[in-house]
Amino acid sequence: MALSLAFKKPSLKGSIQVPGDKSISHRAIMFGSIATGTTTVEGFLMGDDCLSTISCFKKLGVQIDVTEDLVTIQSEGEASWKEPSEVLDTGNSGTTTRLMLGLLASTSFHSVMAGDESIAKRPMKRIINPLREMGADIRGRQDGQFTPLAVQGTQLKAIDYTLPVASAQVKSAILLAALKADGQTVIHEPIASRDHTEIMLEHFGATVNRENHVIKLEGGQKLTAAHVQVPGDISSAAFMIGAALITEDSKVTLTNVGINPTRTGILDVVEKMGAIIEIEEKETAGERSADLTISSSTLKGTEISGDLIPRLIDEIPLIALIATQAEGTTVIKDAEELRVKETDRIAAVVTELSKMGANIEATEDGMIIHGPTVLTGAKMTSYGDHRLGMMAAIAALVATDEVAIDDPECISISYPNFFEQLNLLTN
Ligand SMILES: O=C(O)C1=C[C@@H](OP(=O)(O)O)[C@@H](O)[C@H](O)C1
Ligand SMILES: C=C(OP(=O)(O)O)C(=O)O
């Protein structure tokens, strides 16, 4: 159902707590299902993607209870998992699909995994190639490049592997498979990607050796249940950061936002563009978090490339939008990974922002944006991609006319109360 947004150049004021981090929420369910005992998760993201992860592990026989404030996982470890009689449906979630492959590959049973039409187009051989080197038996379309994927679990062996792409999903799938592999697995990561898996392995009692972009994990380690405190998702917070920056007379506080350094590229970039942003770090039991206070700012263009890209990969649609309001040129390079997310996010961002009058052009591995430009109303397509839907909604705040979004429901993939919170800040 389409949604029409017509803001009257609003200012944003107030304080909100964005929903829990999607990457950490996925991993809390996975590790709670691997560990022996009762794991509790506070601040879990009740978004579609993370609910897909819960659904898949319930089909493996893991007991998972969900209330508004707490998710409780009771498991006797991977050995207690049951061979699923149903297809494991991963919905729209690349993280669920790819990390589960690492776990299913080392079980003692057969399983089949499939997702939605977006997942069916996303590359899986980047995961299956290293898992096959470990001895995994995985079949799928085009020799395992695409779902549906059939996995015959087996005993795996350790590998020494250099990641061909800066992907935390590839790294994490190998680490999860390595937990039950014979020997020590070594992963070389030329460019750092988010390290939530490494942190959570240690949180659940495993020993992980990390130095100079090399990660070593001994197989056979047992994990023990734990409590997980999930901070707010900085990838969701990014949209509210951008909203405050590009509107006039705004001041917004986002409480308890995760500031894991492998995820804070967005903060580095907006500060370099001239953003007025206060960061007050909090004491937490889990990963680092902070209260962020963002005020309307005059922004200037910048260049975003190299090692910075994996630290803000999901924020690039939002960054492209704020670049349309910045003085000068913004160049985004080395971001070819965007072409294999839920959509081809380079093509989609350029097409959609161009509809609103943005001066933006696509390159093979990124985009170039000239600003500032006045954005007009338009009929925006989300392509079923939550981050495109949110980009369109934030763009509507500064558009001269009404903005229609074709599938606003897709935003619940990662931010189920997005419109509720946006309305709270604009009223
Ligand atoms: O490991 C994760 O939780 C994620 C890793 C990233 O994907 P890649 O690892 O494919 O870059 C990111 O785009 C995704 O939203 C979540
Ligand atoms: C790409 C994303 O997630 P996933 O890879 O889990 O689908 C995202 O959240 O932008």
Automatic annotation (TrEMBL):
Subcellular location: Cytoplasm
Keyword Zinc-finger recorded: no
List of residues binding 3-phosphoshikimate: K22, S23, R27, S167, Q169, D314, K341
Function: Catalyzes the transfer of the enolpyruvyl moiety of phosphoenolpyruvate (PEP) to the 5-hydroxyl of shikimate-3-phosphate (S3P) to produce enolpyruvyl shikimate-3-phosphate and inorganic phosphate.
UniProt keyword annotations, A-Z: Amino-acid biosynthesis, Aromatic amino acid biosynthesis, Cytoplasm, Transferase
Family designation: Belongs to the EPSP synthase family.
Protein's UniProt name: 3-phosphoshikimate 1-carboxyvinyltransferase
Gene label: aroA
CDD domains: EPSP_synthase
InterPro entries to which the protein is assigned, alphabetical: Enolpyruvate_Tfrase_dom, Enolpyruvate_Tfrase_sf, EPSP_synthase, EPSP_synthase_CS, RNA3'P_cycl/enolpyr_Trfase_a/b
Binding site for phosphoenolpyruvate: K22, G94, R122, Q169, R345, R387
Species of provenance: Planococcus donghaensis
Domain Enolpyruvate transferase span(s) in chain numbering: 11-422
